[in-house]
Amino acid sequence: MLEVLGRATSGNVQKVLFLLEELGAPYKRHDYGKTFEGTTLTPQYQAINPTQKVPTLRDGELHVWESHTILRYVANKQEAHALYPRDPAARSQVERWMDWTLASLNVAYLAGFKEAKLPPEQLSEAAAKLLSAELSLLDGHLAGRPWVAGEAFSLADICLAPLVRRCLKFPHPKPELAHLRQWMARIEQRPAFAAAVAAG
After folding, report:
1. CA dist list (Å): 177 to 82, 133, 159
2. In 9, 67, 103, 151, which residue has its Cα 20 to 30 A from 32's Cα atom?
3. How much is the pLDDT for 200?
4. Residue 29 φ then ψ, to 5°
5. The whole model's pTM is what?
6. Cα atoms in the Cβ-side hemisphere of radius 13 Å centred on 2
7. Are 12 and 55 in contact (CB under 8 A)?
């Protein structure tokens, strides 16, 4: 059975849980991370994940870290070609958004996350601009598309959904983002997503 090492409230852990729930793959999750003091800071954990972050996937003797690498590993192992196409052109449509999530959206997400509990008068214009810019880019891309990589639900949607859900809840001012909110509503109708983000 696959084992996920990581706290259920981590957005990166939730990406992995979302995929596993979608596939109906049996797994067990163990609490690791910042709210479980020391569990990622031990020599034992560092030996399987030198970043000392979550998530880590355990598959027998193999340990896989970095959330998007885990998504690709699981999709390949489960032969989930509908979610992660074999065709290079179709796969590129998925992977470009997986990479964009890490390189661009994650920067805006972290800026918003740091200020999420501040009163409105303390929210920075810089964080608001970052969030608006990246979310607007994704909103424009989703115009006329049901899913991020086109007509089919894929790993691109799975990796984006937990972070976008939080970005939309941040207190910073945002544009309307109608297409993005419609996409989020479709995601939230999926039982696998509800299970993945149930912890918050």
Report:
1. 27, 11, 19
2. 103
3. 78
4. -105, 140
5. 0.96
6. 23
7. yes
